Amino acid sequence: MKDDYQIFGIRAVMEAIQAGKDIDKVFIQKGLKGELFAELNGLLQQQGITASYVPVEKLNRLTRKNHQGVVANISPVTFHDLENLVMQVVESGETPLFIVLDQLSDVRNFGAIIRTAECTGVHGIIIQKKGAAPVTADTVKTSAGAAFRVPICRTEHIKDAIYYLQASGIKVLGATEKTITHIYDVNLNTPLAIVMGAEDKGISSSVMKLLDEKASLPLKGEIGSLNVSVACGAFLYEVVRQRL
Predict the structure, then answer these.
(1) Could you list the residue range(s) of the whole structural domain that residue 173 is in?
(2) What is the CATH number of the domain that holds 38?
(3) pLDDT tens digit sequence for 46-105
(4) Same domain, 58 and 162
(5) Concatenated DSSP letters for the chain?
(6) Quick one: which of 11, 18, 186, 239 has the most CB atoms within 10 Å?
(7) What are the φ/ψ torsions at residue 48 (nearest 5 degrees)?
């Protein structure tokens, strides 16, 4: 399955970008030079595609094919336009429910969140183009195929997505331990987007300032936080409970 979403070679990667394929990440051999490489580099910058410069050994581990110093991952899913998706959901008459992932980086956590999102009726998941966990074969596998069923939107900046959600009448709620308000005391039977933070840092301070509301889960043990996908599941099922 992994090889189905991988392309290699400078010209092949350039052709994929120009054909409008959703490229998650490009790995480039350190020290690579030449006119064709310069052309590829310009194309990556123009399209805002993340590139990592790695030793040749890393590329050799990614593929046994003749990669010519460049390997790219193609997303197995087609991304949705955020504005169109929000408009469709609002016009459908259903109560909107979105998940916003602020710099979540682990593909398996991402997959687990997508799976729970599908089971709880989430209308869409919003991620940032740069720095977020890519949609890989592992993401799809962990999601049990839900990645093909839940619309995923990529945005240049999470803050812009939040502004748009709020302008569309959708309350933006942050899942954070940095509040005494429990999720069970918040009204979730309203147009809603739940922001989940990164595994190690939580929600970034710049995003935290934009939230309409914050909520936490009560923790009875000694450990200060839950795994992000578990916490997301707890939040989503409280939404389901309130909306039943």
Answers:
(1) 82-243
(2) 3.30.1330.30
(3) 887 878 899 999 999 888 888 989 999 888 888 999 999 999 999 999 999 999 999 898
(4) no
(5) -GGGGEEESHHHHHHHHHTT--EEEEEEETT--SHHHHHHHHHHHHHT--EEEE-HHHHHHH-SS--TTEEEEEPSSPPBPHHHHHHHHHHHTS--EEEEESS---HHHHHHHHHHHHHTT--EEEEESSSSPP--HHHHHHTTTGGGTS-EEEES-HHHHHHHHHHTT-EEEEE-SS-S-BGGGS--SSSEEEEE-BTTTBS-HHHHTT-SEEEB----SSSS---HHHHHHHHHHHHHHHH-
(6) 239
(7) 70, 35
For residue 199, pLDDT over 90 is answered with no
**Stronger pLDDT, 241 or 7, i.e. the higher one:** 241
For the chain, give the mean pLDDT. 91
pTM attached to this predicted model: 0.83
CA–CA dist 14, 3 (Å, integer)? 18
Residue-wise pLDDT for 126-173, tens only, equals 999 877 777 877 888 889 889 899 999 999 899 999 999 999 999 999
